[in-house]
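In the lab's daily routine, each protein ends up as an entry in a very long ledger. A line of letters takes care of the sequence, but it says nothing directly about the fold. The three-dimensional part falls to structure tokens, numbers that each stand for a local backbone shape. The outcome of that step, for a single protein, is printed below.
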Amino acid sequence: MRDSAATLLNPNLSPSFERARKLSSILAVLFTIGFWLGLVLALCVPLLAIWPHAGSIRWGNDLIEFTGLSPAQRLGLLATAEIGMIPALFLLHHARRLFGCFSRGEVFATASVSHIRAAGFWLVVSTLTAMVAKIGLYSTHGVKADVELDLQGLVFGIATFIAAHVMGEARRIADENASIL
């Protein structure tokens, strides 16, 4: 559904937007695939925690060993993995929805602004929880965590959130102008 502001700001999107629409469709599909794969992985991680013969899985650059862990350590590892994965799933969800909006030409629409804002928020949360998850991962194995805050992810998340606020304000002004006419 298009808003009046989206229609007012883009009554006829330029032909050059067609390329952006196609690229947005591709990104929406890629983010959707990533979301569903991540969701399946998030649902399968609890099985690794209860399966006594689970070996190891790779998480980024880290190898997570399940062999020789007590049930409490396995549950800690499960909680750590889920803490790291769930915000990333929300980020992927909003990214796929955002690029779905763009592929339909909904640039300054309420939904697209909302998804940009949510993506920025979840990028910040994901950046912070990835650090917490890595600390939990190392502590589960009794190793001192060598963890650094991902400032780039934090800055991009905050910038994205602010950009969504600016887009929302532009949309509000366009709605006001449309109601005057």
